[in-house]
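Quick one:
INPUT:
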């Protein structure tokens, strides 16, 4: 049976992250960033959510939608989320007892439970500013931590000392100068997970959905994009009259590309792999996630 029929039969909806393969974005009911997807999942009238993205995103959807069955086509691990380990987080908390803890959404639920608030790349400075402490433990991405530190008067203490997204880290200054030589009129738009060197040369730094919104507003016709390659599909689809070039052709997240149409069909047929979270962890992790939603909707 085809995906469309299976979706109808099971009252299922397919949610896909901005970074997944183009053919999956094309059949998804909704494509967005992790927070948009989790919020969308709470609003839809579906019994089953098939999510295409990586582990921490699937967990967030499951935590915010406890009454719905959440499936993934395959196990996709975010290497950045893996860079935070429980012992270092707890050691830092002991070392800075007065600091609040803000964790990027790219963390596993077992770590979210230690946060005062979660943030995404689109709301990180706002969430940090809302904390009632001068010091904030922030993790796990060092580049996002630096970006936030430049936007706030609070002291940002990165946890761990050097967590990074391998996909964004592969975008080098050399790639950027080559791309600028080829497309001198293009605006440089990058994600805050890019290194500090790249961020300094950028015209705009924004989250995935922020990049889409910015390119729509801009009068420019050409853009050099510094993020995972999957976003290019959405940019081109939504702005066919503008030109988008990757700064580096190597910015590909293997975990995001693990999902395929065949695996989606299989998942809908068999209803495995199910995303389940320990009830005790879910009940604690939902608190800092809801805190972020509360802060950003005020
Ligand atoms: O929140 C997300 O989906 C991530 C990881 C990045 C972004 O900028 O959308």
């Amino acid at each position: 049976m085809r995906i469309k029929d299976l979706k109808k039969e099971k009252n299922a909806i397919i949610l896909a992250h901005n970074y997944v393969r183009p053919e999956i974005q094309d059949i998804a009911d909704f494509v967005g960033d992790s927070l948009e997807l989790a919020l969308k999942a709470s609003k839809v009238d579906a019994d089953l959510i098939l999510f295409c993205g990586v582990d921490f995103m699937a967990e967030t959807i499951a935590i915010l939608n406890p009454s719905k069955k959440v499936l993934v086509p395959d196990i996709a691990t975010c290497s950045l989320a893996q860079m935070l380990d429980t012992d270092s987080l707890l050691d830092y908390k002991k070392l800075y007892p007065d600091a609040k803890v803000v964790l990027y959404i790219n963390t596993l639920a077992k770590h979210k439970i230690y946060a005062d608030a979660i943030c995404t790349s689109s709301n990180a400075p706002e969430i940090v500013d809302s904390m009632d402490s001068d010091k904030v433990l922030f993790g796990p991405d060092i580049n996002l931590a630096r970006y936030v530190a430049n936007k706030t008067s609070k002291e940002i203490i990165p946890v761990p000392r050097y967590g990074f997204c391998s996909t964004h880290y592969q975008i080098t200054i050399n790639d950027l100068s080559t791309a600028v030589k080829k497309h001198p009129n293009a605006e440089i738009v990058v994600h805050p997970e890019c290194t500090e060197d790249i961020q300094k040369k950028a015209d705009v730094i924004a989250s995935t959905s922020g990049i889409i919104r910015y390119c729509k507003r801009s009068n420019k016709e050409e853009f050099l994009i510094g993020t995972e390659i999957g976003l290019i599909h959405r940019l081109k689809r939504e702005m066919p009259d503008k030109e988008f070039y990757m700064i580096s052709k190597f910015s590909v997240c293997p975990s995001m590309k693990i999902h395929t149409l065949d695996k989606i069909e299989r998942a809908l047929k068999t209803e495995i792999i199910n995303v389940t979270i320990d009830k005790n962890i879910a009940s604690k992790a939902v608190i800092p996630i809801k805190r972020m939603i509360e802060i950003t909707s005020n």
